[in-house]
Structure formats: C-alpha cells, structure tokens
Automatic annotation (TrEMBL):
PANTHER family: L,D-TRANSPEPTIDASE, L,D-TRANSPEPTIDASE YCIB-RELATED. Residues 87-245 form the L,D-TPase catalytic domain. GO terms for cellular component: extracellular region. SUPFAM superfamilies: L,D-transpeptidase catalytic domain-like. Keywords: Cell shape, Cell wall biogenesis/degradation, Peptidoglycan synthesis, Transferase. InterPro entries: LD-transpeptidase (IPR050979), LD_TPept_cat_dom (IPR005490), Transpep_catalytic_dom (IPR038063). This is ErfK/YbiS/YcfS/YnhG family protein. GO terms for molecular function: peptidoglycan L,D-transpeptidase activity; transferase activity.
Amino acid sequence: MRKGYIAVLVLIPVIIIGMLNLKNVARGVQDASAYAKNKVELVFVKPDNEWKNNEEPSNRVHLRSVKPDIPLDELLKDKNIDNKDSFNIFIDLDKRTLFFKYNEEIIKQYVISAGKKSEEGKKEKEGDYKTPVGNFFICQKEVYNPPKTYLGSRWMMLSYPGLEAAEEGLKKEMINKEVYNMIKESYQDKTMPPQTTKLGSYIGIHGGARPDYPRDWTAGCIGMYNQDVEEIYKYVKNGTRVVIQ
C-alpha cells in the first residue's frame, strides 16, 4: 500500500509537468499562428563589431515587421495622385522609418537602416559611419541591373554636405569660404555639392538590405530593401525634397 502512495506521489509532478508542456505547446502554436497572420519575421542579429566570417547567429533576436502592405502604385492610384512635384520624403532616424509623402500627407512608410555608428551622435566628418540629419534633395539617380551587392538595385544620392554641415564645417575650419560658397550655390541651384571635402561624401538612399543584416549596416546612407526602394524610385526625381531628423 505504501508503495502505491509513493508511486502516486511520483506521478503527480510528472502529470503536472506534462500538462504545463501541453499548455506551452498550445501557446507556441498560437504564437506561431499570430506570426503567420501578421508575417512577423524573426531575424538573428548582433552588433556590427561582433560579426565575424562564418560565425553562427547570436541568440539576440531582432523583430522586423514585414506585414503585407498595399503597393505604392495602388495607393497613389486610389488617391488619384500623379504629380511628382508634390512628392517628398521624411526620414525619422529614431524610428528607423522612411515616410513617403504627397505634400504633407503620408502615403506609405518603410523600415530603413542607418549608418553603423549613427547611435553615437551627429555626423561630423568623412568616414565616421554616421547618417547626417538636415534638409536635403535628391541630386542623382541610378538603376543597377543586376543589383550591386552593397547598393542593391537603386541609388538616390542626397545633397550632402548641405547648408547645415557647411556652416559647421566652416566654423571648425574643415572647409574654407570658397568651398562653403560652392555648397551654398549647389543647394540653391539643386545640383550636386562638392564630394571631396572632409565633411563626408556620397550619402544617399539605396537598396541592398537583407534580413540577416544588423539593424544599422551602412557607411552613413539610408539602406532599404530592394523592393521598397524600387517602389519610391519611380516617383522621385532630382530636386525631390528629403528631410532627415
């Protein structure tokens, strides 16, 4: 009889653990269903300085939303919008989000990546791997077919260095008055500013993003998925306003 009691006492924890496991399995199925419904992608990422060749992904998981959305073409068609002169781009670095706008109306938003060291502060010089903030415009457009490994399928160059960077650079004697005036004139004429200064060069919006990349992976540009940058590429032109803050 005593052995029977002992057997029952041993079985009780086993039964409880089994019930908990079944509950966790059910919860896992429910979570998986939610992920499938919302198309949330689990991506293993780690800081830039921890990546090594042929290394296994870290255990830190980054959630990137890839919810199904309506193509930009359809959104603009539904709103009967086709005036390229009124399109502009606003980029919120804190939210890592690009807002494609018609005048002040947000038409669609996209997940973006910034320069590898953008979290460390304001861009100051060439090679600091930081994304600049300020008011810019698109001054060059390129299609890459086949896509380039780093730049992806589309390139839209921004008018950096802009007025803010030029004024700061002049104060710090990183540029002289002549270069400052050249940058100022390019801003007024909507042309490409000098790209050989200590302030930095070739900052743009481009494709090339991949799910296995860390959150920020560029040298200072705005990085996007090819399919996203291709959507907005056709609706912007040289002179389209871009604000980054």
